[in-house]
UniProtKB/TrEMBL annotation:
<dbReference type="Pfam" id="PF00480">
    <property type="entry name" value="ROK"/>
</dbReference>
<dbReference type="InterPro" id="IPR000600">
    <property type="entry name" value="ROK"/>
</dbReference>
<dbReference type="GO" id="GO:0008761">
    <property type="term" value="F:UDP-N-acetylglucosamine 2-epimerase activity"/>
</dbReference>
<protein>
    <submittedName>
        <fullName>ROK family protein</fullName>
    </submittedName>
</protein>
<dbReference type="InterPro" id="IPR043129">
    <property type="entry name" value="ATPase_NBD"/>
</dbReference>
<dbReference type="GO" id="GO:0009384">
    <property type="term" value="F:N-acylmannosamine kinase activity"/>
</dbReference>
């Protein structure tokens, strides 16, 4: 397989590029907002745009996407929107086939990211790698000896639904879920609850908790605002517990971290995990590395998934 149209689709951003199977991006990545309720049409149109952007045809389409994936059926079973709603059954492969007659490889974005790390990213000589994505939610994947752990129904790697504490906050119906307190959605929710329960009247009046974002919390912590520092201290402990739970289950030699929350706040996220990890860890401590693939990790993951299908 010579050339591939690669896509990294998240809840918020839709990224596309033409690449070779060895991981070389032949075009600069194009980024646009994800349109969850028009996603099949958006993908088919983007394939057409990529075809017009290069002087040679490509052989296949590779898609890493947020949500639960039916790879055999070429569909996204459930796609989470940034506002927490779910779009069911998006038939992306059939839309691309109708428009362009090209085969589609479809894989969950966090699973794909683990494959991307294994083939193109932070792995050195480790035999087992775990990747954790901190984005709108939290997800990940495990690759051992070059093989992705998929699970019975292809749902392995839903790390964000690991219960990390006996709190009452839910994600996708799971009480105590890691992503309910440490994801792009979870951090502002945790901060808002902290302000309402612990902050003084001045903070409660000054901070608009209804409009609070994860970025706001990190900026406030950098400014030494007490409520934000205390919130992120709690996030650090939850993150360490979550990473340790993954490690205790699969014993990786390296854990790589990605997603917007980690990539935009690397010092706080990585140092927080490093500080508290040993409290929760049973297996030998792995190396913790930020992904070198940055925001393009979804594209590399999609390419790695195509390569895995060929072997």
């Amino acid at each position: 397989m010579d050339r591939v149209a690669a896509f990294g689709i998240g809840s918020t951003n839709f990224r596309a590029a033409v690449a070779t199977a060895d991981g070389t991006l032949l075009t600069d990545p194009v980024v646009e907002p994800t349109r969850p309720r028009e996603l099949a049409d958006q993908l088919a149109a983007a394939v057409g745009d990529l075809r017009r952007s290069t002087d040679r045809p490509f052989d296949a389409v590779a898609v890493s996407t947020a949500g639960l994936v039916d790879d055999a059926g070429g569909a996204i079973r459930e796609f989470d929107t940034p506002d927490g709603e779910t779009v069911d059954r998006i038939a992306v492969a059939s839309a691309v086939d109708r428009a362009h007659g090209l085969p589609v490889t479809l894989v969950n974005d966090c699973n794909a990211a683990a494959l991307g790390e294994w083939h193109y990213g932070a792995r050195e000589d480790e035999n087992c790698l775990a990747h954790v994505t901190f984005g709108t939610g939290i997800g990940g994947g495990v690759v051992a000896d070059g093989r992705l752990l998929r699970g019975e129904d292809g749902q392995a790697g839903e790390f964000g639904l690991l219960p990390v504490a006996p709190h009452d906050y839910e994600s996708t119906g799971v009480t105590g879920a890691w992503e309910a307190v440490c994801s792009g959605r979870g951090i502002p929710a945790l901060a808002a609850r902290h302000i309402e329960a612990n902050a003084g009247p001045a903070d409660a009046e000054r901070v608009d908790t209804d409009a609070l974002t994860a970025e706001d919390v990190f900026v406030a912590a950098d400014g030494d605002e007490r409520w934000a520092v205390e919130c992120l201290d709690a996030v650090a402990r939850y993150n360490a517990a979550g990473v340790a739970a993954v490690c205790n289950a699969v014993n990786p030699g390296v854990v790589t971290l990605g997603g917007g929350v980690a990539l935009h706040n690397p010092d706080r996220i990585v140092s927080g995990i490093e500080e508290h990890l040993d409290r929760f860890l049973f297996v030998d401590r792995p190396t913790i590395r930020l992904t070198p693939l940055g925001d393009d990790i979804g594209l590399y993951g999609a390419l790695a998934a195509v390569g895995a299908e060929q072997t």
